[in-house]
Amino acid sequence: MKTRVQAKIVGRVQGVGFRPTVYRYATELGLAGFVRNDPQGVILEVEGEPENVNAFLDHLQAAPPPQAVITSVETHPQTPRGDNKFEVVESEATGNAEVHISPDLATCDDCLRELNDPQDRRHGYPFINCTNCGPRFTIIRDLPYDRANTSMAGFAMCPPCGYEYHDPHDRRFHAQPDACERCGPRLSMEITDAVNLLRSGQIVAIKSLGGFHLACTLAAVATLRERKHRPHKPFAVMFRDVETVKRYCRVNESEEAELLSTARPIVVLKTPSLHRSITPDFPTIGAFLPYTPIHHLLMQHFDALVMTSGNLAEEPIASDDAELPHVADAVLTHNRPIVHKCDDSVVRIVNGQRQFFRRARGFAPSAIRFAEDCPHILAVGGELKSTFCLARNGFAFLSQHIGDLKELKTVEYFEREIAEWQRLMRVAPVAVAHDLHPGYRSTRWAQGQAVKLIPVQHHHAHIVTVMAEHDLHGEVIGVALDGTGYGTDGTIWGGEFLLATRADFERVAHFKQYRLPGGEKAIEEPWRMAVSVLAAENLAPEIRSIRGTIVPLKHRMVEQLVRDGFQSPLTSSAGRLFDAAAAMLGLCDVATHEAQAAIRLEAAADASVTGHYPFDLNGPVLDFGRTIRALLDDRQNVGLAAARFHNTIVAGIVRVCESVREQRGLKRVALSGGVFQNEWILTRTTAALRERGFEVFTNTLVPPNDGGLSLGQAAVAAARFVGQASRLSAVNVDNRDGCPTEDK
Ligand code: ZN
Ligand code: ZN
Ligand code: FE
Description:
Elements: E1 3-12, H1 18-28, E2 32-38, E3 41-48, H2 50-62, E4 69-78, E5 86-88, H3 109-115, H4 159-166, H5 191-199, E6 204-207, E7 212-216, H6 221-228, E8 236-239, H7 242-248, H8 253-260, E9 266-270, H9 275-278, E10 284-288, H10 293-299, E11 304-309, E12 330-332, E13 346-350, E14 353-358, E15 367-369, E16 377-379, E17 389-392, E18 395-398, H11 408-424, E19 431-435, H12 441-447, E20 452-456, H13 458-469, E21 476-486, E22 492-500, E23 505-511, E24 514-515, H14 521-524, H15 526-536, H16 552-564, E25 570-571, H17 574-584, H18 596-604, E26 616-618, E27 621-623, H19 625-633, H20 638-664, E28 668-672, H21 679-691, E29 695-697, H22 709-722
Parallel strand pairs: 2-5, 6-12, 8-10, 9-13, 16-19, 19-20, 21-28, 23-27, 28-29
Antiparallel strand pairs: 1-3, 1-4, 2-3, 6-7, 7-11, 8-11, 9-10, 13-14, 15-18, 16-17, 17-18, 21-22, 22-23, 24-25, 26-27
Helix pairs in contact: 1-2, 13-22, 15-16, 15-17, 17-18, 19-20, 20-21
The chain binds zinc ion (2 copies) and fe (iii) ion.
């Protein structure tokens, strides 16, 4: 007696070799029926002996294809039809999409073997791929994921490729970007010509999956810095293989796994050599491995190549030849269009876990499960390191890194991608969540939308990213430390201790406020913060001793600004306190890139130093005034002073958490905000809190910086929809003079 069952499989099940696997399992068990993609996922029906049907369903869930993520399987019994074969049938393009789009996947070992095999018909072909690897998100225009809906639509398959594509036993069965030398995309230049140009010290723009890289040899890095107007900001280095990485950097097991993962992110590694020209401010480099066939072919000729995004300053990465800035001497491009720009992701391993600096290629648009259920929501994030987030049915889809919305080109890219993603994900938002900052471009964009608006305080959103990631409900102690975020009282926050639920929060403590002299100017010029803090702490005579390029006349001018409060809003920013300390120690008076002062301060800190400086907790105010005095006394010993400063911040965090625990009986602590990218602060705070019996949660799926903000906003919006009471009443969103939009 035969049975027939229909199964609807939802999750990341398209573009990952799902149908061939279904075909193989079904035919191995002698089952008849069919499988097809549809906008909800994969629909299949199997007919045969009941034990074989059950074995099939068990096996598929126990051993899905390696890149697949099954989020649900629904089965319905059917009347047997007497089918005698199993078929893969054409996709249906109707209905609401629940399918999750696969991120781009690094070249797999099978393809790599063929690429290097002189007998293989794809030997040396720079666009080789299969159902287990290759471009996905960056070539997809619409669902279902079929060739006609990708930027491969313009390439008609040759007969041998077509044969593979239709053969269910072939690794390239329904591999949408499948192609070969005869029928597929082509490079504009021979690899060997590019190799020769690079060897001669030239800068070559290379088209990759989500945009262009600017590549050069280590010897030519000074030229690249000059042309990109980037004196200090770190560059990433692509290495030939993991053994070569190990010759230059220290690599532990988790870091190696990260380097070799199919996402192939840039991994920040400690390096005893090499780093000076690549990352002048810190003894680390961002290392990554070849992830496209083009990279593999190139890297056969080099141990290492410097590779940085093909863009200028904070503009979006160039994905089209016409967008390329005039920085490169030559361009290695190709004719497979990029549909979605996507930068390299940047991660590091800290406390044995992944921490994102930037989440993009290889991760976007993977789904993040963050709630039981929720209506369709769009969250538009912050201003710098912008991302947006779409949510439906309890899943959040965080966009790739968009960039700095101060740039007009980035705003255009932001708007275009939001429209594209809404179409692609079949999301029609009933609400848009946004930051409280009235000056953010994202806020203004949200206010132009004709749907319900849900304003979310910046640091609350940071904390809720952690709650969403770790499925935390109820109340937590949220420690949100960053550069800038708009507060509910119209001042600038950034050293915040919140009693937070997903829907709401109460500000229970914060760093002491100082003036931000000249608003955004003070972020670019840390010496201004030093002047502000010294003046406020009655240490004005010490202002003369601030070392750097700034003349004393300007010091006096800023001192005046601080005294009058003119164009100098109040801020409880933690980031600015790091800036002030770095400037007082002569480490950075003017910053050339984001967080440079804090990065130098961390690099200067002597890891063997223990102990901290005095500080005070006066009611809700965490006051580091006495810390500043002690720091100045030690300024001749920068390593010691920097270390004690860091330790004092850690001690301050612990003190506040203990006081909140005493009063409210809470022991779960969520740490977020850009300051937790400081490894010293993150590892020592985590350790100190755990030693005292706290449960500590940090970001591992999204960046702790503003790149994660939109996930937090979406989760807050989802929680408010669930109807948790809101204690937040009238929120002041008046624009204040000189209130910066930066968050460094
Ligand atoms: Zn492959
Ligand atoms: Zn072909
Ligand atoms: Fe922030």
